[in-house]
Write a structure and sequence with these properties.
With about 200 residues, the chain is mainly α. Helix content is about 60%, strand content about 0%. It has eight helices and no strands. The longest helix is centred in the N-terminal third of the chain and has 22 residues.
Length: about 200
């Protein structure tokens, strides 16, 4: 039986407001990671929405966890892994949107109009977008586990031990997974046209 909640305007299955508050604080960060792992804006949105539904089913676990982001990321990785198994042919599109780190939900809303011509941050935004898209491209060459480990350790700054705890893996497994992932990424970068042109060896 579904009843309406006067507090949130949602049905009785919805988590309490504190769940939404905590999840919304992590939403920007989760979406960026989902976009990096999924490769398309739509896939990222779908993955984060699915994570929300999974966590909302048992909000007390999420709220009581000492590190909610780590708990949510673990769930996100599980969702992305399932989606990768369903869809082997994902096409990276250029509409993956990454909002600036400071423009999220802190109350200082960005101007809704177009930025002034020649604004300094304009070029920085383009550079960031290009680097983010390149990160997406590189991560898509890894397995889900490898990508998850690289995101946690090399982008989010967790230690090997912390990443192992988040992912529920042995420390040695995480260390080996990261080493293989980084080796694969280095190999991919060396093979790119225009990079280290004189170092092209026969495989």
């Amino acid at each position: 039986m579904v009843t309406s909640s006067t507090t949130t305007g949602k049905d009785a299955r919805s988590p309490d407001p504190s769940f939404d508050d905590v999840f919304c604080e992590l939403l920007h960060r989760l979406y960026r990671r989902a976009a990096m792992l999924s490769g398309t804006r739509q896939s990222a949105e779908d993955a984060v929405h699915e994570v929300y539904l999974k966590l909302a089913a048992r909000p007390e676990r999420f709220l009581s966890h000492p590190e909610p982001y780590a708990y949510a990321f673990s769930s996100l990785l599980s969702v992305v892994r399932d989606n990768w198994r369903k869809e082997r042919r994902q096409v990276l599109v250029a509409d993956v949107e990454f909002a600036g780190d400071g423009g999220g939900g802190s109350g200082g809303a960005a101007s809704p109009g177009a930025p002034p011509a020649g604004a300094q941050w304009d070029d920085g935004g383009l550079e960031r977008r290009a680097s983010e898209l390149e990160t997406v491209r590189l991560l898509r060459q890894l397995t889900v586990r490898q990508a998850g480990v690289v995101v946690l350790v090399d982008l989010d700054g967790y230690t090997i031990d912390q990443a192992a705890k988040i992912l529920g893996l042995h420390r040695g497994t995480v260390a080996l997974t990261r080493r293989r992932a980084l080796d694969k990424l280095r190999g991919s970068l060396r093979r790119q046209p225009g990079r280290s042109g004189g170092e092209r060896h026969a495989c």
